[in-house]
Design a protein that fits this description.
The complex is a heterodimer of chains A (about 325) and B (about 325).
Chain A: E1 4-17, E2 20-33, E3 37-41, H1 48-55, E4 63-68, E5 71-72, H2 77-83, E6 84-87, H3 99-109, H4 114-128, H5 143-154, E7 161-165, H6 173-190, E8 193-198, E9 209-214, E10 217-222, H7 224-228, E11 234-238, E12 240-241, H8 243-252, E13 256-262, E14 265-270, H9 273-286, E15 290-291, E16 295-297, H10 301-315
Parallel strand pairs in A: 3-8, 3-9, 6-7, 7-8
Antiparallel strand pairs in A: 1-2, 1-4, 4-5, 9-10, 11-14, 11-16, 12-15, 13-14
Chain B: E1 17-26, E2 29-39, E3 44-48, H1 55-62, E4 70-75, E5 78-79, H2 84-90, E6 91-94, H3 106-116, H4 121-134, H5 150-161, E7 168-172, H6 180-195, E8 199-204, H7 207-210, E9 215-220, E10 223-228, H8 230-236, E11 241-247, H9 250-262, E12 271-274, E13 277-282, H10 285-298, E14 303-309, H11 313-321, H12 324-327
The chains are: A alpha/beta (about 325), B alpha/beta (about 325).
């Protein structure tokens, strides 16, 4: 069993503002072993950034435990800083410094010996493909290249673990693919432990372990197959017309576990495709609802997330949100 | 899909969005290079491309905000370049950073945008409740906009963009970064509008938004490289086939396959880690399954399976925009 690199146990972070208390991280537990690529996945405002900041000791925790490589986040911030790299969401690379000057700047901040710098900087520039741009000002780099430079700077002091807060936000698909391939190389070549947060459900597929977070709470965690196994039954997809009556009919049919709306398509979770598909088709035909072919599709992380969030909502009454009536 | 063009202001048989041999140069730089496409009435069309591909330039020309170098664009039958006023009166636009007045209520925001479009008070009295209902904002119409959550604000922004009943609406990355539940509610609204005959053009580089469009145009380096539905694109546009390798040591598998691609032992287009699996793009399924299996076994890797999997829309996108020569060096 690989050693535990990142640990949070019943972690709580509250922000107090006048008389209101906001619980940004709510009894969150997670454990990341060496060499894993862990994805903390959730929408804006779920508590991802706060979790990272508390783990790194940049914010004080309110309660619970948190540590990195066995060092307590609050008591041992310096040993943590020596051993971790961090790319904040709004990563600030001095725009008036060149690529090379940025690298040297971050090396100096981390107290990296000149001899080590001479070896590491060219290696990291080659690794990130920035070797031909050493004299370009950071402010003149494209979005994708800025992210690569930030990654190179975060690795300059040879950390054992890196934290990336939404590194692919606002990056186009080509640059996003490049960036993920770089992270894959760090995993294969250096065995680095990677902890990243993202609002994009499809990035779960790039991780070895994921945690799904909503409103500061972990609603599910594990490998991708483990999370998908939490979904109810099998998933059928079709485009009905008219839409709303079709959804209402499906909801009351036996064996239908859940429905979700996906653009012009309806997603219906059923216990048994062979039995329920003809029943759904018959029920739609009886009401004169037209539709394209019913297909069984594999649920993605997004379907799993929605299902798990809905389940979480219905089991915790205080979290019930009023949903808009107009489009339910 | 059956559509009733109740929102379309000008009845005509021509498609509501027409782009004909469009070229736009900025100095020596060709931002849009002879692009042609149409969007049909009531269609939800995705306009995709990496940053700097010419996506936004095309939309600006359609809206009459930029002059084309050559070629023509028409919106609802009006020439974007020569009939800007007619175009502006009939289109809606919602940007990623939508502008709502936080210190006004949703009701007041909608009224404000109606005023901008010179709608008469009597008209607005009927229209505002319609928008409130459509956006699911009943009960919140008199709350301060700043107190609304992201998903509500987004639906309000859409409501403000369509207050004047545009025939075509342009949405720029409308649901980037929003939680999946709010995104789905928003897309339900988009399809409601489309059912009522509104033509929807979504510009985005987020594949989870693109997947929800009925038809997609891909632009890369100013050129239109693909135009089809997401499912057709996945079948037709992908260069090569995606194989998924399930093996005991994925990190080691990547090293071996990359080395084989490097010394041209195997023609692999891309080798990448996906969690515990490795994906690679190959020119032939059966042949490469065997070749990869043999290579991994020779390296003492225990292989659980090698499966041919459907490409994601992102795979297709990367494959479409990649220069075929450049991709060999990856």
């Amino acid at each position: 069993m690989a050693e535990t690199v990142i640990l949070a146990k019943d972690l709580v972070k509250q922000f107090k503002n006048d008389k209101t208390v906001i619980t940004a991280v709510d009894h969150l537990s997670l454990q990341v072993a060496a060499g894993e690529t862990y994805g903390l996945i959730g929408p804006d405002g779920a508590g991802k950034t706060t979790t990272i900041r508390v783990l790194l000791g940049l914010l004080n925790r309110t309660a619970g435990e948190s540590s990195i490589l066995g060092f307590d986040s609050m008591r041992s911030t310096y040993p943590i800083r020596d051993r971790t790299g961090y790319i904040a969401q709004s990563n600030v690379l001095p725009p008036d410094l060149s690529v090379m000057e940025n690298m040297q700047f971050f090396a100096d901040i981390h107290g990296v010996d000149l001899a080590v710098q001479k070896k590491n900087i060219p290696e990291l520039l080659a690794f990130t493909g920035l070797g031909n741009f050493t004299s370009r000002l950071a402010g003149k780099l494209s979005g994708g290249m800025k992210k690569k430079l930030a990654l190179a700077c975060s690795l300059i002091h040879e950390p054992q673990v890196i934290f990336l807060d939404e590194p692919t936000l606002g990056v186009d698909p080509v640059s996003r693919r490049d960036f993920w391939n770089l992270l894959g190389n760090l995993r294969t070549e250096k065995g680095l432990t990677i902890f990243m947060s993202t609002p994009y459900m499809d990035e779960a597929e790039r991780c070895t372990q994921v945690g799904l977070i909503t409103k500061g709470r972990m609603i599910a965690s594990g490998t991708l197959p483990e999370i998908k196994a939490l979904l109810p039954g099998h998933l059928l997809e079709f485009a009905p017309f008219p839409f709303k009556p079709a959804q209402q009919i499906c909801l009351i049919l036996p064996g239908v576990l859940e429905t979700q709306v996906y653009g012009e398509k309806l997603h219906v979770f059923v216990d048994d495709v062979a039995v329920r598909q003809p029943q759904i088709e018959a029920a739609l035909a009886a009401e004169g609802i037209r539709h394209d072919e019913l297909r069984e599709i594999e649920a993605r992380m997004e379907e799993a997330y929605i299902s798990l969030v809905n389940r979480h909502k219905s089991t915790s009454l205080e979290n019930v949100q009023s949903l808009p009536g107009g489009n339910q | 899909m059956i559509t009733e063009p109740s929102f379309t202001q000008k009845q005509s048989s021509t498609p509501p969005v027409v782009v004909e041999n469009l070229v736009k140069r900025f100095g020596d730089f060709v931002a849009v290079d002879n692009v042609s496409f149409n969007v049909q009435a009531g269609e939800v069309f995705g306009w995709l491309g990496p940053n700097g591909a010419g996506k936004t330039t095309t939309i600006r020309i359609l809206l009459g905000l930029l002059k084309p170098t050559s070629g023509k664009t028409f919106v609802l039958g009006f020439d974007s370049n020569l009939q800007k006023k007619e175009v502006h009166a009939r289109v809606g636009y919602m940007s990623q950073q939508f502008t709502l007045y936080n210190d006004l209520t949703p009701w007041e925001n909608i009224r404000f945008y109606g005023g901008v479009h010179e709608m008469r008070p009597a008209e607005l009295r009927l229209r505002i409740p319609e928008i409130i209902h459509m956006a699911g904002l009943e009960g919140r119409e008199n709350a301060m906009t700043r107190t609304l959550s992201g998903g509500w604000k987004q639906r309000l922004a859409l409501g403000c963009a369509i207050v004047h009943k545009p025939g075509v609406i342009f949405l720029d990355e409308p649901t980037a970064g929003v939680d999946p539940i709010s995104r789905r509610e928003f897309w339900q609204l988009i399809y409601q509008m489309a059912d009522e005959g509104v033509t929807v053009v979504v510009t985005t580089h987020y594949m989870d938004e693109a997947e929800l469009c009925q038809r997609i145009g891909f632009i890369s380096q100013g050129k239109l490289v693909a135009l089809a539905s997401p499912s057709v694109l996945k079948k037709s546009q992908m260069r090569g086939f995606v194989l998924e390798v399930n093996a005991s040591n994925p990190e080691q598998v990547v090293r071996i396959l990359k080395a084989a691609a490097q010394n041209q032992q195997l023609a692999l287009d891309e080798v990448a880690l996906y969690g515990a699996q490795v994906h690679t793009v190959v020119p032939d399924v059966m042949l490469y399954k065997e070749k990869i299996m043999a290579l991994l076994l020779a390296n003492q890797i225990s292989v659980r399976s090698i499966d041919w999997i459907a490409p994601s829309l992102e795979d297709v996108f990367i494959s479409s925009v990649k220069d075929p020569l450049e991709s060999k060096s990856v």
